[in-house]
Design a protein that fits this description.
The chain has 254 residues and is α/β, with parallel strands linked by helices. It has ten helices and eight strands. 51% of the residues lie in helices and 16% in strands. The model has no long low-confidence stretch (mean pLDDT 96). The structure holds pyridoxine-5'-phosphate. The site of pyridoxine-5'-phosphate has 19 residues, from strand 8 and helix 10.
Length: 254
């Protein structure tokens, strides 16, 4: 699946739920967004059920599994509660991410090397249930080697530090982060791991990282949901103007 084939795009719908939760109602529906993403070419859907349920909720994850017809990637912390929900949901994949309640997003990679003893039984349990386990780690050789030793079939390289350095105009730091990603992707592939990448990717960074032959999948959320506002706003406003005009016309002819 790597080399010359185009990397798959997993669309993360978490932030559709963030907007919904800001109002407390049912709209916008992340499952509707997932279906639209698939119709537009997404190869899979990613969603992160955080411990504090700040965006995706248990019911969203269950509906995603029931209603979408592409692979579901269930992002989760390495906790007993999340393993139990993943086993019940039976997604195509589970991506284990680090989680701290006070962080705004997943700020660093999982310390697989430091948490080996805790992760090993969870990875075995998920794998035993036929779920493809992925570890969300920094492009650090020790973490990548640990993922292989733990027999996780997939790693997802955290691209946040690289994207942040580029966005902040720190070219030197960006160059260092980029060379880590290039080396990490190659090491992962050499160790027989499927290599994914994600966090903070936009059009330009996705284009660059897609050139790496080891990269099989990119998971992208926040940027796409943000772009959708700009791309979708003219059409939504047009439809609203039509609705308002229809209402007035109906009143006139009543
Ligand atoms: N991959 C993983 C493992 C993540 O935790 C996230 C953020 O939830 C993403 C990809 C997507 O990141 P972003 O929303 O910045 O595109």
């Amino acid at each position: 699946m790597t080399g010359h084939s185009v990397p798959r795009l997993g669309v993360n719908v978490d932030h559709v739920a963030t907007i919904r939760n800001a109002r407390g109602g049912r709209l916008p529906d992340p499952v509707r967004a997932a279906k639209l993403a698939i119709a537009a070419g997404a190869d899979g859907i990613t969603a992160h059920l955080r411990e504090d349920r700040r965006h995706i909720r248990d019911e969203d994850m269950a509906r995603l599994k029931a209603e979408i017809d592409k692979p579901l990637n269930f992002e989760m912390a390495a906790t007993r509660e999340m393993v139990a929900i993943a086993l019940r949901t039976a997604p195509h994949a589970s991506c284990i991410v680090p989680e701290r309640r006070e962080e705004r997003t997943t700020e660093g990679g999982l310390d697989a090397a430091g948490q080996r003893a805790q992760l090993a039984p969870m990875i075995d349990e998920l794998r035993g249930a036929g779920i493809r386990v992925s570890l969300f780690i920094a492009a650090d050789p020790a973490q990548i080697e640990t993922a292989a030793a733990l027999r996780a079939p997939v790693i997802e390289l955290h691209t946040g530090a690289w994207c942040d350095a580029l966005a902040d105009g720190h070219a030197d730091r960006a160059a260092v982060e980029w060379s880590r990603i290039v080396a990490g992707a190659a090491l992962g592939a050499k160790l027989g791991l499927e290599v994914h990448a994600g966090h903070g990717l936009a059009f330009d960074t996705a284009e660059r990282i897609a050139a790496l032959p080891a990269i099989a999948e990119l998971n992208i959320g926040h940027f796409l949901i943000g772009e959708a506002v700009f791309d979708g706003l003219p059409s939504a406003i047009g439809l609203m103007k039509d609705a308002i005009a229809r209402g007035r016309k109906a009143a006139r002819s009543a």
